[in-house]
Hints:
It comes from Modicisalibacter zincidurans. This is Preprotein translocase subunit YajC. By secondary structure, the protein is an alpha+beta fold. 38% of the residues lie in helices and 20% in strands. A seven-stranded antiparallel beta sheet has the order 1-2-7-6-3-5-4. Strand 6 and strand 7 form a beta hairpin.
Amino acid sequence: MTFWLILAVTMLAIISPAVWLRPSRREHRIAALRQAAREAGVAVGFSKSPLHMAPADLASYRWRYPQTRPGPRCVLVREAHASTQLKPYGTNWRWRIEPLRRLPAEADQRLQQLLALLPEDALVLESTRDHLWLWWGESLDAAAFSDIERSMARLRDALEGDEASRGAPNVPPG
């Protein structure tokens, strides 16, 4: 009898670390989400977000602008994480950094469509010269993220390039 008891305790001691290391459902969902994002050409990272006192679990998803057509500099922050001194934009968002020029109508429309799709844990939408960034808590699964990915790609396409020279003919100096 003691032999079986010792054998059972030994087996439990061997198996228990493997059970602790097994990924949870959330970890499986996030791994599938990140894999789907990478396959769509989206870079996933954990660099410091532009939020002051940001939650620790924010991930950054980046859509690259073409090198020859950089994006405008602007930052939108979810109202719950923004100062009331910042200028409101749409519902539940505020400009932390407004674009230097007014957004073209197509880009503004695409931005509003995207903001309506974003889940509550999406806290910052940032455009830099090289990337369009989404800072969020990864609450969606891969299937639901595909709508956001397409909307972000359309917004990036609408924002890319210098708006002041958009449509200007190539005239040699002279």
